[in-house]
Amino acid sequence: MDFNDEKPSSITPAGLLAAAFRRRWLVLGVFLLGWGAMTAAAWLLPSRYRSETLIMVEQQRVPEHYVVSNVASDLQNRLQSMSEQILSRTRLETIITNLKLYPKERARNDLDGVIEKMRTDINIELVRTPGNAQELSAFKVSFSAPSARVAQQVTSALTSLFIEENLRSREQQSEQTTAFLQDQLKDAGEKLAEDDRKLREFKTQYLGQLPEQLQSNLQILSGLQSRLQSTTDDMNRAQQQRLYLQSLLTEYKAVARPTTTAEGTPVPAGDDKLDKMRAQLAEYLQKYTPEHPDVIRLKKEIAALEAQDSATAQQQKGGEAAPAPRPASGIDTVAQIESQLRANQFEITNRQAELKKIQGDIDQYQARLNLTPMREQQLASLTRDYEQQKANYDSLLAKKLQSETATSLEKRQEGEQFRMIDPPSLPQKPYWPNRFMLCLAGIAIGLALAAGLVIGLELLDPKVNNKQELAIAMPAVPVLANIPQLVTVDEQRKMTRRLVAEAIAAGIVLLVVPAVTAITYLRG
């Protein structure tokens, strides 16, 4: 009878254990096959050793508030750039040639493949600062190779390259920064000199119209206006003096004529002339002091005229017909007045020239004052450009000096450095393959294969092995009788010997598997 349709429901833990016991040799064989394959692979795979070193990033020795570094502070980017340079074809080919790495691959003339394989064997791991995941404090460099000594040698070579490349790259970057600032400073100096030249030429060209000369121009203009007023007053007085002298000259010329007629009768001097002179004297005394030259001169003329009138009157009383004397003093007075007129005319001419010059100066300074606002705007623009260039130049000069100090610091190797904390280790055990884990994996795989085999066979086997499976397969059919298995004495002996052999085999397996696993762990 085929109970295949009901058979799956009979798969229980107890049933599986019974089935495993029934197929114990098969289970044991599958288990040994899985475990043995993984264990053999663990021992047959070539060992690889990994040498590792820790490189710490040591900050510069001089405090940064004294000397600020002019090298980019992003260590991760610099480390990535250095890694690309160190892992370049040229560098790796040199290491491969010097240490005679990958002889089999090199024998096939596959240099590109050798270099790519070496890159995969190199590992660079960043170490973050505790408490600050954004800051790098160190990094690890490791290399894996079939030989522990080779792994150590290559790791040591890579470490030296990183330390040397860091020093070289920092010094190069520092020198490039200083050179760049030097070029920028030179350009800024040329622009500053050009702006300074424009500013000087502007001040020279518009001297007198500059804003800082506004107050002095106002003072000079005020002084010129005062001089203009004073000179105008002097000019007016000189013109009045000329009119007076011209009238006085006319009168004196009249006085200087013969005092007698053709018949010998004296010509009386006009009293109106003396009255005019006295009136003129009174006018002068109101304007000038008695010591004024015009006042003194006029007094002398009045005294002379009075004396002349007095002499004429005495001659008329005596009845003497004296010859008409020529008024020598009047002639002298006329000459003196004419001389004064010439001096007065010279003074008027000078005053006119002075007035013209003063007026020209006033116009000139007035024009300067009118142009001052425009010059102020132009000067402000030039000054602003000059000040900006000066500030830029001063800033670049300070940066250049600071960069030169930082470059000197890098050349003396007192800046940020890579310091090897742990020298490249000489590995005592291979890091791959992990034979112990492979042995454990073999045990697990062997057990899984055995369990899968038992379950699969049970699912495919249509037999009913006990009454429990029969009850599950045919629950409606009662069990009427249970016939025990009948064995002979020989069969019993064979079964006993078989059980003993199986027990010994199982014991051997239980001893061999842990022993091999333990040995694998110890020799790992």
Can you describe what's shown?
- This protein has 524 residues and is of the alpha+beta class.
- Helix content is 70%, strand content 7%.
Helical stretch count?
14
Strand order within the widest beta sheet: 2-3-1-4
> From the structure provided, what is the oligomeric state, counting identical versus distinct chains?
single chain
Order of helices and strands: HHEHHHHEEHHHHHEHHH
Category by helix and strand content: alpha+beta
Characterize the biggest β-sheet: 4 strands, antiparallel
Fraction of residues in β-strands:
5-15%
Which spans have pLDDT < 50 for at least 5 consecutive residues? 1-10, 259-270, 319-328
Total E-strand runs? 4
Shape: rod-shaped
Mean pLDDT: 79
Keywords:
524 residues; alpha+beta; four-stranded antiparallel β-sheet; 4 strands; rod-shaped
Give a quick rundown of the structure.
The protein is an alpha+beta fold and 524 residues long.
List the helices and strands and how they pair.
Blueprint: H1 13-22, H2 24-44, E1 49-58, H3 75-86, H4 89-99, H5 103-107, H6 111-121, E2 122-129, E3 132-145, H7 148-205, H8 214-255, H9 271-287, H10 293-318, H11 328-411, E4 417-422, H12 435-460, H13 467-473, H14 489-523
Antiparallel strand pairs: 1-3, 1-4, 2-3
Helix pairs in contact: 2-12, 2-14, 3-7, 4-6, 7-11, 8-11, 9-10, 12-14
